[in-house]
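Exercise 7.
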Amino acid sequence: MRSVFMKSSVIVIGASGGIGSGVVASLLAEGYPVVAVGRHRDTLLNLADRLGRPAALTLLTASVESDSGAKDLVQQLVALRRRFAGAVVAIGPEADCGRLLDRDGIFLEDHLHAHVVAQFNAARALIPLFAQHSPNALYLGIASAATEHPWCGYGHFSVTNAALRMLAKVVHGESRDLPVRVQQLALAGLVRTWRNGDCACSEWMDVDSVGRGVIDLLQHSDGSAAVVHLRAGGSPEPVPD
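Solution. The predicted structure, written as tokens, is:
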């Protein structure tokens, strides 16, 4: 049965995380059907419970940590027989605090895989899907502006986000001839979510503003900028090459 929703659906990978769940809530409030993707069924069900189990929310258990997992996700998405407005990829492990030089190579390798390789797998899977079935859809990776300056105590996070920035530019350039908008949303600061609300500071960016930034790009971006910044209280701004 084909979808009965008026708006095209938006895929959110990492939907049960702090930022991902906030983006899901904002999209639903704006009237977008959402396909929430996560590795664990129980955390997706918890997300649905927090949101009141809306009819416009579809849950898919899948992972983009491997190429085969990303291909399995595409098969599940195709089976939904929907038109997609875009995908938001908000994934990555918790940011463990500590000096990078006190860690070993496996630690950095694991973080690079969880951030960079996983987003690469998602891009390789979803961009061709959109080009074939949902022209003009937006593929949007979420990252941090920590790429611009070393983040004290979280050097590995700065390293992985710097790699994500270059990945975004490369994938954006290589997709230029496809009918898909490929961009990265770099968050210029820490984000207050349902997961860290007890310890978040007042000057942190609210996750609702991230959701609004995503919606702004879905509806208005021409996709010409590989990377756009989002600052607290602001709107997405292109980052010059």
